[in-house]
User: Fold these one by one.
Assistant:
Number 1:
Amino acid sequence: MMGRLSLEDFMQEVKEKLQKRYKNLKVFTSENIKNNGTKVYAVTIVDRASSVSPCTNVEGYYKKFESGECDMEEIIMDIAEVYEKNVLNHDFAVHVFSNYDNAASHVRGRLINTEKNTELLKEVPHREFLDLSLIYVVELEYEEQKRVLSMRINNEHIKFWGVTEEDLYSQVKNNMDEMDESSFCSMEEVFKEMIGSGGEEVLEDLSGAYPPMYVLTNKRRLNGAVEILDAKVLRRCADVFGKDFIVIPSSIHECLLVPVSEEINDFDYIAKIVRDINDTQVPKDEILSYHVYKYDKQTETMMIVA
């Protein structure tokens, strides 16, 4: 029986096999800092003639290898397929990244926790909002392949493009207004979509549950918590509730909204629930905040309340 491979040995073997496959290219492995200080281990195949070299996260492959779900050859074939699909998109990606005018319509914002990302924030243009920070990415969506390629914008990019953080912020707001990628729906609707047919009894119980809870995210439900920065969307939510509402940072992907009432006013207790869920159920790299916010319908402002 073969001994267990460490992650480092697995990455080295993946690198060597890919290098044999792509003799005229350069293959290397890297350890990158992800959201909230977590690390991601990646392999990159570099064509020196290209200015775009996508990274492939190898940790998921390592878990499949360890469990016996995939052997090494299947993993190499899959990484190669991902790379070769990216090669097909190379010209478009280079065209977008080459100057800011091409990239502008693809600029999106992402919200992350400020305190947990102090080192990352030194390297990227950003804007603070309460205990959070807005960072910027370029997203390219390939509908035929059902994939999204994203690149985090760092200080070197804006220097190369000749733009400022203020330019990025204005562009994100414009893109939000023009494209309106927000999704605002009740928890009942979310569960209905998840359960599908056959879950009528659960949905009937849920419809009578208190308090009413809504989910605010984007249409892809990926990095959708940034929608709380869209003033137009928040006004629309407040109009639905007809009053102030609580914003619970579920994760970097979505926030939960609950209308304020006499029963829903113990903000410290809600914050304790948020902390417990973050510490036990939310992946470390997806935690957004341990605080609870309130949106004031009259002043159209958001504040930390716990």
Number 2:
Amino acid sequence: MNRTKFAITLMASLFLSPIAIADVTNGKNNHSILQTTKTTALEHVLSSFGDLAVQLPADGKEQFSIVMLYDNQCKYCNEFLMSVPELTANGVTVYVMPFLNHGVYSPESKTMYLAWSTKQPLMSLLKNQLPSQPDPHTAERIFEFTKFAQNQLQVTKTPYILLENGEFIDGFVSPDNLITYLKNAS
């Protein structure tokens, strides 16, 4: 992240909530992690919108859980999704939430509405086995969640990862760096 963009993000954050900053370095990229509130966004998202979550459980005993806001058109989301087996093998449960990164009425978002209208959204996307029409209730819930994420969590891009301790990662992070961070933060 360049210094100007970081400074603007930091300045804007000062008006939104108290912050704590850490860096998770992923090769070429640095990702700022900002603490939001004591009641974590992860808990709020799962309690209010858990019906939309696709749970990918940890192998064995769960040590950590994260929520990933996902858009199927985002190459970094798909890259992160491919790393989920490494995360689950290390005791991380991943909840995948649909986020309409291209706008709630865009043609790209229609695929998300359709996929989440099935019993297995991620498999439906992978196999391109989608219904012809979205479930109206599911579509409405995805719309509500996207608006909540944009307005309350200030999400502007994906992947966006919510952590149990109230922090978030805005952008891609390697599974190794995420696991290391989770272990050090606990």
Number 3:
Amino acid sequence: MTGSASQCTNLGRSTNASSEAKRLTERLVDHAHYLLDIRENNAIVVYSDQLSKQIPRSYAANAFNVFREAMHQIEIVRLNALWDQPHVDNEAIMSVVELIDNDEVIQALAENARAQYISLPEPVDGKKLNGPTLEFLKELNRKRGEQHAANAVAGLRKAIADARALKKSPQLKSIKNLRDKHVAHYLTQTKAERSGETIAPMKVGDEKPVLEGSLQIIELLYCWVNGVGISFEESRKIDKKCAEELWNGCKFDIADCSKLPSKTLQLK
């Protein structure tokens, strides 16, 4: 474990580190699904002109701009939440990383992966397996188990390395600084800025590589910590279909202020 583990009180030293990592990873999957829900709605509301082009110069345009900004901000907030500091109470990627970034924990998880190949398949016809066949299947399962355990170690170490790299990425730093300064709080300077760190302003689109990287890390963690393969692609298709069904049926009929007589524009 690295020195940053001190931020996560005794996480890596816990005897039930792997079970706690499983619990947290389950929660990360749930949080990722919710974030994808928001993302697919924002693909239409924020990142396309499907709605905005229907709204002319009007008081309604002000309300729509507020709504669109709020949608974008909640996506930033939820994405940042995946990268909260490691702590026993934080359901965040780095909490899981600090739990599993330990040789003993990794080997225990690899052993779990190996154990999936201990039992032999039951004969289809119910007959007992003869000696040579039984020995062949045992050896086959042993080799599969060894390979699965090796894949687990490689997958876990990749998830750890990718998470630490993404945590330090300029895109995530920019997103976090914006969240801390203007969304979650109203700050003149963030802690990072006061320390002298130079952080570039967040640019539109910075959140995409951070989201994609986060999803890939969570997929790796869920596969090798929880022992269950997962892909968010099918979920994204469903989320996209839901968002399109709502927003494709949403039509605005708003008067253009620039084309109305001046007396109708006066506020009462």
